[in-house]
Structure formats: structure tokens, C-alpha cells
Write a structure and sequence with these properties.
Chain lengths: 867, 112
């Protein structure tokens, strides 16, 4: 017992010592509570890591790492609940997890609002600097609260949405919990490698969730597509992370951002930026990587609501926001992020209008809204370029605030809309707009939610989308006036594209509400008799839409507690300048504000376009399906498959001769190139032994016999010629004073010749090879090449003797081994191990020959062989 | 002598290569046999062909030829014989089972 407590004490002691190195296998936890106090704010960004370290006793109760692992660990118990307690819907057992995590994370709000950050370290691979380091600041907190909050609502919703009898719920909730833990890991990790780990975990769990109904072809197609695209981006991002590591020598995000100013001239700076952006764009479904999102709609609706609107697609947004302090302020970053965002915004809203499936419409609207957030982050990154206090700074930093504000808003209304569509699907059996209509009176509550969500998305008051859209307009309008990054040239396009996209957004929002809920009720086209959803299903969207309204009326509370600390994380600037942008989020900009008139124009033109939709829908025929990005993706997939098949088929012919030709050509080219590159070829005949006539004749015989084998008309000639070769070699051994070799060679040549003859008796007659003259000359060239190469190498070695032989040692054979025959002494004494294995080779060959001859595969023999 | 032997082994390797790239099983085995002759001659040549007595002690001689390459070649000859024997029986057996010794026909099944 004493020993045990001593051990515990030692662990506790370790907690309090600053640890540099770690002993493997011992899990240690280090909690740090950092105060980014007002004093520290005066220091510049590069001294970021030098801020006050205060380890407060009370506040050290910090279980951030555990919060990440709780859902993942809890997933282990899901099958138990599913199998042992089948009467209760498994979702009820899952529901407390995100709720508890939400409450736990909410306790950090006051700390974060006071500019504190929290971090905790659990050592994993300290020797290469990879540890589970969590880092909670305003930006992480927003996403963590969304993940757990929307997560809890989605699980509640799924309890009513998924049938207990028909669905394999344990799979569903395991995947969902894995996803939740991974997503928390992404937003809370400070270590880039760990961030990447969780990033790929979200891809994989999303893949599993999309293919939840794996019996359907479309689900599998969608899952595969999303996995391919997001993992492609993930790998690119990993490469970017490694480049960052190469530049900075640390995996820690905070430390890397701390070095921000010093990195911008590094050669790897731009490649790392582009690769990381690839990761962010694929995950957040930005143009042209947006194509996986609509296909991911084959997932159950709770999954679509959770992953593909509120959380996973925001991972890319998070990444861009997170890296803004590092890359922002650079023209490349500004242009890439804001233009890709704007293109996505426009293309998403444009394509959403043509959709007939409600979920596809929502998918494209998600793409469009993500593009909007992305473009605002791009514009906001320019703020790092200005000194605080200037007007440009004020408006560009406003863009960041708008982006984060819209991030929250979008999660609320899009989550609610997906749930509403799920309810419609659940209660009518279809999501096709053409078959729906007139559900307003039948499903009044659902209709209310849909209307609130859609109007918020369209940017109408009194909903939160209005506020963020107004801020969006202000920031694009001011961006057009920026005097940097050549904004003079294309700057005007920013507000125009943004405004057009808003008009289209308004149109599809109206389609969503009015085509589904007004018009004529068509019961004959529906699979079920429509009726209002059960209460439990209505609660989660109800909570979300109430947020939509509450945020409109009290935006400042949200801004003070959560958004401003997050802006502080994205634009880490001294506190005095920050006071400048602590502007109030207001619904009313006054009659003179252009934003107001832009919104009015959006509503007017949007309504006109919606009413005359049929008239102008022909525009979409200009973009036929064959030219879509989907068909490009499919063509790429099929093309790469066919291409690689063709490539492999072109050289993997199945003919031994071809493969040997590749090998020989490669050997000739590589060795010859090496010889000539190193000037290794030497001819030195000074050490040659003398030649007498007798030897000349022998060499002549061998040469003639060898060449004659090629031209042998019958196989018996060939065998005899081969025998001649063998015996001549034996005679050479005699001349070269190798009696043992000569003896062995004679015997073995005789036995081999006998074997050849024996075998030939059973083989078909030797035929003339019918090959083309071209092929024959190629063979000849190849053979001459190989022969020349061997000669060249031999001569070069001959001319490059480096040291004398060690055989003098073996000449003491009699003293050392008691034998007078040196060769035999070597074989049986000095190097007897070789001989033993050579005997083994003979044994194996003998056994092989025996089995080949004895085991016949007649009808019954097949069976014996397989036994 | 060494230069001549280098040319000779080059020739043997050329012939071996020509034989090995063919569609007839037996030609290939003969090719490997020629390769092995070439390799053995190459080994002994590399050991040096300068005169000297056979590596047998007690013959009243001071200078011996290098014994180490001879031991290596002896090992190689035996291993080569084992492989050739197995190879020949394989040819016999595959011809018996599949009815051909033409490598253009021995390309596996379509569904492989």
C-alpha cells in the first residue's frame, strides 16, 4: 500500500514540474491556464507565446482532452445498450453526452470573454513533439459549442426520426459519437499532427454516416465521392502542415502563429498556404470541390443536418480562420480565399434554384452560405495589413466578425431547415418539390419553422440572417474601396456578385417555403397521408428557430461573450486597436446606409424572379448535365481507372520474353550510364597471363559451340553443343589448375546432359521460332548489349585491382585445418556453412523433383493435392 | 589471357541472353546453362589466371593459384545443377499437364 501511494505521489509531483522530456508509456497531463491579459496585449504577435502563464489552482480543473475523448470512449458502450436494453431507443443513452459536454464547455464562456485561453497537454509521442495539446480560445469555443449544442439537438431529433425496429441504431450512434469526438478534436487541437488525425477521423466517420443505408447504390456512391474528395484535401493539408513544420520546427499551432511575421518570405510559405487551403476548401465544399456535398444528402437527415450543415463543413472555415493570423495580410491568401468564396457563393445559390429535391436545394444553399462565410474571412484577412484605427481596418475586421456571426447563424437556421425537411420527408414520404404543396394547414408548426429558417437564410428581418447579411454587404462594399492588393481593378465585382447571389438566395428560400407549404395539396402523389410530426421531432428545430429570433434581438450579448473573443483569435492585435471594432451589431443602419437599399432591392428583384420563375428557368438549359462538375468528376474517375488499366495492360503482356527484355534494357542502360558517367572503363592488359596456342584453340571451340547453339536445327544438336561447352569448361578448369572443379564439372555435365535427354524425350519437337525480322534484330541487339556490358565490366574490374587476395591465409590449411587440399579445406572447414546450405539446396531440389513427378493431378489426384 | 576470357564470357552471356528471350521452354533452360558456364568462367578469371600450382599442399611448391574462387565455383556448380534439374522436371511436368512448352501459350487463365 505504501508503495502504491508513493507511486501516486510521484505522478502528482510530475504534474507540477515543467516537463521537457517524457518517459514513454507514462501518460502525463499538464494543465495551463493562460491569461491573455490587457498588459500582454500590448506586446506584438510574435511575443504571443510569452504571455503570462498563470496556473490558478481553482481554474486548473480543465478536462479538455477528456472532453474530446469522452464521445469516442462512450461509443464502445453503444452496442451494449442496443443489445441489452432493446426497449429503450439507443439515442436516449447517447443524448446526455453532448449535453454534458455543452454545459461543460459553456462554463468556459466567462473565462474566454475575459480574454483567457485554456490549454491542456496529454503526452503522446513527446520525442517528436506530437502530443494531445488542446487550446481553447474564442474561435474554438464557438465551434465546440455548436458541435455539442447542435449535436444534442440532432440526437434528440434522431431518436424520433430513426425507427427502433428497422434501423441498426448502434452503428448510427457509434459513427455519430466518433464524428463528434473527432470534430471536437479538430477545433480544440493545438498540435498540427493531432489536428490532422482528427480531421481524417471526421472524413472517415462522415463516410460511414453517408453510407449508413449501405444497401443503396446512391449512398455508397455519395460516400465514396465525399471520402475521395475530402481525403484528397486532407492529404494536401498534411503536406502543408509538414511544410510548416519544416519552416518553424514546431507542430504547435500557437508557436507557428507566433512566428507569423518571420515566415512570409520563406520559399515554402505560399506552397504551404495553398495546400492547407486545399484541405479547407475540400472539407468546406468550396468551388469546385463542392460536388460531394449534394451527393452526401443520401445520408439520414439528422446526419445531413449535423455534419453537412452545422459542423463538418465548418471545419474548413475553422481552418481558414485559424490560419488567418499566419497567412492573412498576404495578397495571395486574400485573393484566393475571397474569390473562391464569392464564386462558391454565387454558383451555390445559382444551382440551388434549379433543384427539385428539397435536400439537394439545402445542400447547394449550404455550399453558397459557406462560400459567403469564406469570402468574408478572405476580406477580413486584409485587416492584418492595416494599422488599427483606420477606416479600412474597421471595415475589414468587421468582415471577420460578420463571418463568425454568420457561422453561428447559419448553423442555427440550416440545422432547423434540414430537420424541417426531414419532418416533411418523414410525414409525406417524399422530398420532391413537384409532388409537395399545400402542407401549410396540415403541418402548421413545421411550416412556421420552415418559414423562420428560410426568411433568416434569405436575410429578412426580424431574423438573425438579416444582421449577418447586412454586415456582409457592408464589408463587401468597403472591400471594393480598399487601396491594396490591386483591389482597384476587380474590387467592384465583389459587391455585385454578392448582391446577385443574395437575390438568388432569396429566390430559392421562397421556393423552399412556398412550393412546399402553399399551393394545392396533392395527396395522390404522396406515399403517406401527411400530418403534423410528433412533438419530440419538433422540439429540436423549435429550439434552433428560437435562437434564430433571439439572436436577432440580442446580438450584442452573443458578440460580447463569444464573437469578439473569436475575432480576437482570428486577428490577434493589440487591445487598443480592438476597441475600435467593438462596434455594436445593429439592425438599423439608417436611411442613408446603402446596405438597407441593397436588401430592399434583393427582396424586390427576388420576388419578381420567384413569381416569374417558369419564364426564365430556361437559363439552366444553358448548363447541360454533361458539362457539370459531377460529370467531370465521373469522367475523371472512369478515365483514371481506364487509363491505368490501359497503361498496365500495355506493358504487363504476360509474355516472359517482354519482361526479360525490360530487365535487360534497364540493366544495360543503368550500368552503361554509370560506367560512362564515372569514367570507370579501363583496359589494362599489363597483368594478363600469357596465352598459348592450346588455350586459343579451346577458346575458339567454346565460342563456336556457343554460337552454334543458337542455330541448332534439332534439340539433340543443342544438347550436344551444350555438353561440348560443359566439357570445354572442365578442360579450362584443368588448365587453370582446379582439379576439384574439373572433376565436379565433368560429372555434373554428364548428369545434366542425361537429364536433358531424358526430359526431351517427353517434350514436343523443337520448332523453328517464328518471329519477325525486327524482333530478331532486337533480340540480337539486346544480347550483344548484355555481352558487351559483361565484357566491359570484366575488363574494368581487371584494370582496377584494389588490393591483393586474402587466399594466402588459406594456404596455411595444413596448420589450421589439418588438410592439404586447400579447396576442400575451404569447403569443409573455413567456409563449411556454405557447403551445408548447398547440401540443403540439393535436398530441396531433390524433393521438388520427386513431388513434381509423383503427385499427379488426375481426377482423383486434384483432390489429393488440395488436401 | 584475362582479356580473352573477358571476351569469351561476354560472348557466352550474349548467347545466353539470346536463348533466354525465346518462347521455347528448353531454349530458356539451355540459356540458363550457358549463363552458368559464363558465370563460372568469369569467377575463375576474376580470381586471376597467373600461373601457380594447383592448390594442393605438400607438392613442394611455394606459389599456388587462388583457392577461394575455386571453392565458390564448386558451390555454384552444385547449386546450379540442383536448379537446372528442378527446372527440367518442371518443364517435363508442365508439358505433360498443359500440353505445351511454348511460353506464348503459358499465360495463365483469362480470369486470373
Amino acid at each position: 500500500m505504501d508503495k502504491f501511494s508513493a507511486h501516486v505521489n510521484s505522478i502528482i509531483c510530475l504534474h507540477h514540474t515543467p516537463i521537457q522530456h517524457s518517459i514513454q508509456g507514462l501518460l502525463r497531463i499538464q494543465n495551463i491556464f493562460l491569461s491573455k491579459g490587457r498588459l500582454a496585449k500590448k506586446t506584438s504577435v510574435s511575443e504571443h507565446s510569452g504571455v503570462l502563464f498563470e496556473t490558478l489552482g481553482g481554474h486548473a480543473l480543465n478536462w479538455l482532452n477528456f472532453a474530446i475523448f469522452l464521445p469516442i470512449l462512450y461509443a464502445v458502450f453503444i452496442p451494449f445498450f442496443y443489445k441489452k436494453i432493446p426497449r429503450i431507443h439507443t439515442g436516449w443513452f447517447v443524448f446526455p453526452i453532448p449535453l454534458v459536454l455543452f454545459i461543460y464547455l459553456a462554463t468556459f464562456i466567462p473565462g474566454v470573454a475575459n480574454d483567457h485561453v485554456f490549454t491542456q497537454t496529454v503526452y503522446w509521442i513527446p520525442s517528436i513533439g506530437i502530443n494531445f495539446v488542446t487550446y481553447l480560445d474564442g474561435l474554438s469555443l464557438i465551434l465546440a459549442l455548436l458541435i455539442t449544442g447542435v449535436g444534442a439537438l440532432v440526437i434528440l431529433y434522431s431518436v424520433y426520426y430513426l425507427s427502433m425496429k428497422r434501423e441498426s441504431l448502434h452503428h448510427f450512434y457509434i459513427y455519430l459519437l466518433l464524428f463528434m469526438g473527432a470534430m471536437l478534436g479538430v477545433v480544440l487541437s493545438d498540435n498540427l499532427m493531432v489536428l490532422y488525425l482528427f480531421w481524417e477521423m471526421t472524413s472517415v466517420s462522415s463516410f460511414l454516416l453517408i453510407a449508413f443505408w449501405y444497401q443503396r447504390d446512391k449512398s455508397r456512391y455519395g460516400a465514396q465521392k465525399s471520402l475521395l474528395i475530402t481525403v484528397f484535401g486532407g492529404i494536401a493539408m498534411l503536406a502543408g502542415f509538414i511544410m510548416l513544420y519544416a519552416m518553424t520546427g514546431t507542430w504547435s499551432l500557437r508557436d507557428i502563429i507566433g512566428q507569423a511575421g518571420e515566415l512570409s518570405d520563406a520559399t515554402l510559405f505560399i506552397p504551404a498556404m495553398i495546400l492547407i487551403l486545399l484541405g479547407a476548401f475540400t472539407k468546406s465544399a468550396q468551388f469546385p470541390f463542392h460536388i460531394w456535398l449534394p451527393d452526401a444528402m443520401e445520408a439520414p437527415t439528422p446526419v445531413s443536418a449535423y455534419l453537412h450543415s452545422a459542423t463538418m463543413v465548418k471545419a474548413g472555415i475553422y481552418l481558414v480562420a485559424r490560419f488567418t493570423p499566419l497567412f492573412g495580410g498576404d495578397a495571395t491568401w486574400f485573393w484566393v480565399v475571397s474569390t473562391v468564396g464569392l464564386i462558391t457563393l454565387f454558383w451555390g445559390s445559382f444551382t440551388a434554384v434549379r433543384q427539385t429535391d428539397l435536400k439537394a436545394l439545402l445542400a447547394y444553399s449550404t455550399i453558397s452560405q459557406l462560400g459567403m462565410i469564406m469570402s468574408m474571412l478572405g476580406i477580413g484577412s486584409a485587416a492584418l495589413y492595416f494599422d488599427g484605427g483606420s477606416d479600412s481596418f474597421k471595415y475589414t475586421s468587421l468582415a471577420v466578425l460578420a463571418a463568425l456571426f454568420h457561422l453561428v447563424n447559419h448553423s442555427t437556421f440550416k440545422g432547423a431547415l434540414f430537420m424541417v425537411v426531414g419532418i416533411v420527408d418523414h410525414e409525406t414520404g417524399t422530398r420532391d418539390i413537384r409532388r409537395l404543396g399545400g402542407l401549410m394547414t396540415i403541418m402548421p408548426i413545421t411550416f412556421t419553422f420552415a418559414a423562420i429558417g428560410s426568411f433568416a437564410m434569405a436575410g429578412l428581418p426580424p431574423f438573425n440572417g438579416f444582421l449577418s447579411k447586412e454586415m456582409f454587404f457592408s464589408s463587401v462594399l468597403r472591400a471594393a474601396e480598399l487601396g491594396i492588393f490591386n483591389m482597384e481593378t476587380f474590387g467592384l465585382l465583389f459587391p455585385i456578385i454578392a448582391w446577385l447571389a443574395s437575390v438568388l438566395t432569396f429566390v430559392y428560400c421562397m421556393i423552399l417555403v412556398f412550393r412546399t407549404f402553399t399551393g394545392k395539396y396533392k395527396p395522390e402523389k404522396l406515399e403517406k397521408n401527411a400530418h403534423e410530426a410528433p412533438l419530440g421531432m419538433l422540439i429540436p428545430p423549435g429550439i434552433l428557430v428560437s435562437f434564430v429570433i433571439v439572436i436577432f434581438f440580442f446580438p450584442q450579448t452573443l458578440a460580447d461573450y463569444i464573437l469578439n473573443p473569436a475575432v480576437q483569435a482570428v486577428l490577434p492585435l493589440p487591445i487598443e486597436t480592438n476597441a475600435e471594432y467593438y462596434t455594436n451589431i445593429t439592425a438599423w443602419h439608417g436611411w442613408h446606409a446603402p446596405e438597407l437599399w441593397m436588401t430592399v432591392a434583393v427582396v424586390v428583384l427576388g420576388s419578381v424572379l420567384f413569381l416569374y420563375l417558369r419564364k426564365w428557368q430556361g437559363v439552366y438549359a444553358l448548363f447541360p448535365r454533361e458539362w457539370s462538375f459531377n460529370s467531370a468528376y465521373n469522367a475523371m474517375l472512369v478515365g483514371s481507372e481506364k487509363g491505368s488499366q490501359r497503361l498496365t495492360g500495355s506493358y504487363m503482356t504476360g509474355y516472359l520474353g517482354h519482361y526479360l527484355a525490360y530487365i535487360f534494357v534497364f540493366i544495360i542502360l543503368s550500368v552503361a550510364a554509370t560506367i560512362f558517367a564515372t569514367n570507370g572503363f579501363v583496359i589494362d592488359t599489363s597483368n594478363d597471363a600469357s596465352v598459348n596456342l592450346y588455350e586459343m584453340i579451346l577458346i575458339g571451340i567454346i565460342a563456336v559451340a556457343a554460337v552454334a547453339i543458337i542455330f541448332a536445327k534439332s534439340r539433340i544438336t543443342a544438347i550436344i553443343l551444350n555438353g561440348v561447352l560443359g566439357y570445354m569448361v572442365a578442360i579450362f578448369f584443368v588448365i587453370f589448375r582446379a582439379p576439384d572443379l574439373a572433376l565436379t564439372q565433368l560429372v555434373i555435365e554428364t548428369v545434366s546432359a542425361a537429364l536433358f535427354l531424358l526430359c526431351f524425350y517427353f517434350l514436343p519437337e523443337w520448332k523453328e521460332e517464328k518471329i519477325s525480322r525486327k524482333m530478331k534484330s532486337f533480340k540480337l541487339a539486346l544480347s550483344i548489349g548484355v555481352g558487351t556490358l559483361i565484357t566491359l565490366i570484366t575488363l574494368s574490374i581487371q584494370g582496377n585491382r584494389l588490393f591483393d587476395s586474402i587466399s594466402v591465409y588459406f594456404e596455411d590449411a595444413y596448420e589450421l585445418a589439418g588438410g592439404k587440399n586447400i579447396v576442400n579445406a575451404i569447403l569443409a572447414d573455413f567456409r563449411a556453412f556454405d557447403t551445408m546450405l548447398e547440401i540443403l539446396v540439393l535436398c530441396i531440389a531433390g524433393l521438388g523433383v520427386y513431388t513434381l513427378i509423383k503427385l499427379t493431378s488426375t481426377e482423383g489426384g486434384d483432390k489429393r493435392e488440395s488436401e | 589471357m584475362e582479356t580473352l576470357m573477358a571476351l569469351l564470357t561476354g560472348l557466352l552471356f550474349a548467347v545466353g541472353t539470346y536463348m533466354v528471350i525465346s518462347r521455347n521452354f528448353i531454349r530458356i533452360i539451355l540459356g540458363t546453362a550457358i549463363y552458368s558456364h559464363g558465370a563460372h568462367l568469369l569467377l575463375i578469371t576474376m580470381g586471376g589466371l597467373k600461373g601457380g600450382a594447383a592448390p594442393l599442399l605438400g607438392q613442394g611448391n611455394d606459389l599456388y593459384v587462388d583457392a577461394l574462387p575455386q571453392a565458390l565455383i564448386l558451390t555454384a556448380i552444385v547449386i546450379n545443377f540442383g536448379v537446372t534439374a528442378f527446372f527440367l522436371v518442371l518443364a517435363y511436368r508442365s508439358n505433360k499437364e498443359l500440353g505445351t512448352d511454348d511460353l506464348y501459350h503459358l499465360r495463365g487463365n483469362k480470369d486470373e
